[in-house]
Amino acid sequence: MTGVIVLFSTLALNLLCLAFAFDPSPLQDFCVLDAKSPGCKKPETVTAADFFFSGMHLPSNTTNPYKAGLKVAAIPGLNGQGLTLARLDFLPDGIIPPHYHPRAAEILTVLEGSMEVGFVTSFPNYKHYPKVLNKGDVFVVPVGLAHYQRGVGKVNTVVLSAVNSQNAGIVEVAGSMFGAKPAINSDYLATAFRLDKKTVEQLQSKPWA
Ligand SMILES: *[C@@H]1O[C@H](CO)[C@@H](O)[C@H](O)[C@H]1NC(C)=O
């Protein structure tokens, strides 16, 4: 189960590197974060390297129970631009568990392989919009809606994902409830999820990110 933590903490770590000076009304061309002190680098010290990332052609680590990996392009010059770019890798039966991004829509492009993606609209309709994407296909997940991805087909799947936030946030549907710290009352969760209490306690004992 550590895969849960590995997968999502990779993103968190990458984002921490970029955290979080944001000028909502910038009076400047860019604000490249200064790693050494709070605030922006002096423009005369900014170079093209601050807007550059290399390695998106290399797979992310899929050695985890979900058989999926995530790699974020950590680019100091993205600060304040409302964008994040990531590469997702799936082994043939790899998955990313259901989650939503409270602060961003997501656009997914399949570069290799095949992936099913789906999102579900809000109450009371809960309409499910599933789609199998093949090489070259692009799909949008609207902001804030729960969605899932899973590799389908016989080969590894490579996906480029962009979100329109510097810090989109990830809320894993199961993890947010069964992994809450301190724990949510298990009788409550059993009633709410129509599960027996033992199952709830088993879920609560697992590591969630
Ligand atoms: C991939 O992740 C696993 C599990 O965290 C780890 O043991 C392994 O060393 C990683 N592989 C690479 C190449 O980083």
TrEMBL record:
Keyword list, A-Z: Apoplast, Disulfide bond, Manganese, Metal-binding, Secreted, Signal
Amino-acid positions noted as binding oxalate in the UniProt annotation, renumbered to this chain: 101, 106
CDD domains reported for this sequence: cupin_OxOx (cd02241)
GO CC aspect terms: apoplast
Disulfides per UniProt: 31-40
Molecular function per GO: manganese ion binding
Keyword Magnesium: no
Signal sequence bounds: 1-21
UniProt protein name: Germin-like protein
Species in which this protein is naturally found: Salvia splendens (Scarlet sage)
